[in-house]
Amino acid sequence: EKIKPPVYEQEHGQALTKEEEFRLVEKCIASGSKSGAAFLFILYTGIRRSELLSAKIIDDKWISIICAKQRNGRKEKNRMIPISPRLRQFLPLLNLDEIRSLYPNRLSRTFKEWCPEHHLHDLRHTFITRAQECGISRELVSLWAGHKADNTMTSNVYTHFSEEYQLQEIKRFDY
Fold first, then answer.
1. pLDDT digit string (tens) for 9-43?
2. Is 119 helix (H, G, I), strand (E, B) or coil?
């Protein structure tokens, strides 16, 4: 009765602060490297690192991705992510063919060297958080992230509203 089994709490990622995001973007541009270009692409699409290989630009408006979350022998699912204004400004710096040639594990290690306090998957958290901070509906953000629209995973796991955003939004809570 006195022995209590340990409770496993799943660790979730953390979105980069706007300051961290700004510094990362500067470093990506200054480096001129394939890894830096890949980080920008992941940051502004919210894709998983394993989905990078399937990324294609369609009609200069959309990013097509084959979802990496295939389970139980289900068929591949394609999802479309619109090209955001943030991504559009960096597209001239990105060579998608070169980015797709990067090894996912090496990409993760390089990101850890650049941002020791974060993991590469935190860029996905950052994309989802910023999209929600911009007022994009949860259903749309869920769709772009490859989650079910009625699933709360996007809100519970991937959204980390910044303090400054929360302070800005609370001003709207006025009757």
1. 556 789 999 999 999 999 999 999 999 999 999 99
2. coil
At 37-52, the pLDDT tens digits run 999 999 999 999 999 9
In tens, the pLDDT along 118-130 reads 999 999 999 999 9
The 3-state DSSP class for residue 162 equals coil
8 A C-beta contact, residue 124 and residue 71 = no
β partners of residue 107:
none
| Tokens 């399937």 belong to residue | 54
> What single string gives the DSSP state of each residue in 23-53?
HHHHHHHHH--HHHHHHHHHHTT---GGGGG
| Full strand arrangement of the beta sheet holding 62-66 | 56-58, 62-66, 78-82
Alpha carbon distances (Å) from 46 to 16, 50, 72, 103: 13, 12, 24, 18
Residue 81, H or E segment: strand 78-82
